[in-house]
Amino acid sequence: MSVDLNKVINTIKERELDKVIELYKDRNELINDLFSVLNSNFTQKNIVEDCFFILNEMISNTIWNDLTLTTKIELQSKSLDLLELECNHLNTITIEFINYLYHNHNHEINEYQSILQSISKRYIKHNNTEFRFTCLELICLILKSKVSTEEINEFESSLSNLITISFEQPNDNTLYFIKHFEIIKPNFPDLRIENETITTYLNNRFDDYIMSESYNTTVFSNFFEEIFELSDSNKLDDRIALVLLSNLISATEDEDVQIEEEFKDKYLHFIFKQFFKIDDTQVQRWDDQKQVCSSSGFPILCLNSIAFTYDKLLYQRFKELKDQVIQTGDWKQLCGLSTIASVTLKDYIDEYTYIGVYKWISEYFVHPEPYVRANYIELAVALIEQCEPTVEETITLLDNVLSLNDSHPPVQRGIFKLINTMIALENSKFKEKIDRVLEYCSKYMNIEQPNDIIEGVVGLIGGICGSMFESISKYANSYLSFMMSIIKSDRFNPHSHMFGIVLEAISVIILESHGSVDVGFKHSFETIEIIKRNMPPHTDETSGNYARSLVRFVQALKAKFQPHYEFLIHYLINTLDFQWDEIKQISQDELDSRHETIGLTIALIPLLTSEQQPSIQPYIGQLITQLYKMIDFGSVIIKEDSVRLLSLLFETTITHYQLTNLNNKSNTNNKHIETLRQSIISRLQQSIDMEEDEDVLEIKEEELENINYNTESKFPTCFYQSSKEFNIIYLFVKFKKKHATHNNPAMNNYSRSLVQFVQSLKSQFTLLSIFSISNHMKSRKSHEEHPSTYPYIGQFIPQLFKLLDCDSAIYPVHIREKLICGYLVYSFESINNTPPHFQIQNEH
After folding, report:
1. Could you tell me which residues come within 8 angstroms of residue 92 by beta carbon, excluding any fewer than 6 positions away?
2. Phi/psi zone of residue 584: left (φ > 0), alpha (ψ -120 to 50 degrees), beta?
3. Above 70 in pLDDT, residue 371?
4. Which of 227, 587, 689, 731 shows the greatest Cβ crowding within 10 Å of its Cβ?
5. Do the bridges between strand 192-193 and strand 196-197 make them parallel or antiparallel, or are there none, so unpaired?
6. Residue 192 belongs to what H/E stretch?
């Protein structure tokens, strides 16, 4: 039975919604008619709200099961159709409805119609910016729900069609641009557009715009002023702000890009304002000893970039700002000013001298607001770290600091940190003052003190132990007892930052005392058990303290650490067990912490390889497998360090088996080395093929060469087990190493024999060994010292050409070409620079 739509509309207008439902026996028909009403009355806000009220009732669990499959699917598609009407209040309520529908019934509907695909099809179909913006808004909402990996992968395949960013009319596209980033950065970190990462793609489009004929200085400035406003009103994600402002900084560095001086001042003013936004909640968390005072996010990164590009302008504006802030006396602005000052310290010292700058900073050590005191003590730390004071200046500073005793625990912790920073300078005069420093510490060595004070005093003692243990050795036992009482107490949270600092200080005392403080290692074993019992997850801020402490115990206890060694290694292996899906599951702070822990782990492993007892060798394979993930990690530093560590672990393995082979005549070790080498080479080659960063690419290629060279030179019986020729060449190389540094007539025979031998070679494996010979024939010293290889360059070059056509998995083609061409260039230069008394034909 068909119901009169006019009657439905009138009933809705009368706000009798129950009667609307009673008009229909068939709920499917009711839903169809409600969408008809919406399409014809979308400008009437009350009707829209009431229709959606009824629709929300229809998709509740009690009624949902009565609907046909066709109606369920049409609920989604017809709702998306409403967005095309481009009515603001309709869009808002429709998006809420679609999100609610997806949240409750996505598994059933998506089986027949993917909502993400449906949105993207409409997006591509329409060119209207407002409509596309609405689509992006909806996509953002859906992706924040529990979207399956399959849905995301399916949507990612069509996402490249959505990337149509243009800076030609930037003001119209600002929010549109931002929505793209909100979708892409968190959910699709590996997305590539036109074979570029999304950030690279957008940066390149930006560069295209500012270098194009359509570039307009006013439009450019207006675009970024709008970005400034969005950021000031907290409508801009920090990651997006950083990408946008990085583009801005790059543009201002380009001499071909015309940017008005007035705009640079507006930019500086915008950045300065960000440091004055000090949230009361942030201060309260610091006051409650739950957070340190710090400036993070895009403002500090932008400020450092400005300092690099416009250091003089920044310093001039800082001085003007300083006068204004001091005049107002606003404590939040004073805190912000201290952060800005930390970036301009060098210029400030040049104008006012070191002591002059310190005098200004120290005025705020006694400010009535604790947060100001803490910020300026932190600024004093930055002053010392950036511009090391002289011995006399250090003593002047120390005398001033030792007169401070702050009643506020977080501030007092900062004072201890400031003293610790002075200790790190290792000034000779400082040791004369060490008793005063220790006396200062003794006033605070009480387990009943607040956590911040315990953290500060223990951190300071640990710092002194690490740099001048002999100066405090007579107090070491009492310090160790104090610290042991802390970690054995139930009062303290083992995952607190303070607890981690104490663990590290204990490990430093035991390591630096060479066991004299902890006879029999009783305290060491107690501490290790506490660490094992409380080891935090990788994303915890204290995980680094725990890991560093264990590594120091390995160094201190050596073979006695063996029962606990497997625990440490498995922790390090698990730290490197990073899955990209984690990015979508953890917060940015947790992700940053995980990055730091991975970086720390990669730095700690080389320390373990240098220890003979216990040996890291049984775990090399597992560590290398985990490093395979790290060599393509998002962080450039982690990629570089991982590749170097990969090479180091392989070299360590070769060294281990060299020693083993002295008493082992079997080929088992040889086969193990060869299998491991082939695995690393294969994985590195894949990584090289994908690498975009030129610096990282160069490091990967260098380490690939090192891996082959280490095998070739240190373990030749593995690299060329069946090649007698290689063993002969290896003897040549050893002979050259021994005699080439002297003007030895025997080198003539060496060179002549080498060339004759190389000419006779037919095996591709032996031809590959020419790489080793070519490196040894390259003379980095004078012609007079190594004259004898030059007459044979012309005979040697043809053998290198053979290598260009060699088919070998051992040396990938681009590595062969790089090595060969390098030697050819060297040879050409050698021929051109050959002393007159050598007869080298021009045709060479």
Report:
1. none
2. alpha
3. yes
4. 227
5. antiparallel
6. strand 192-193
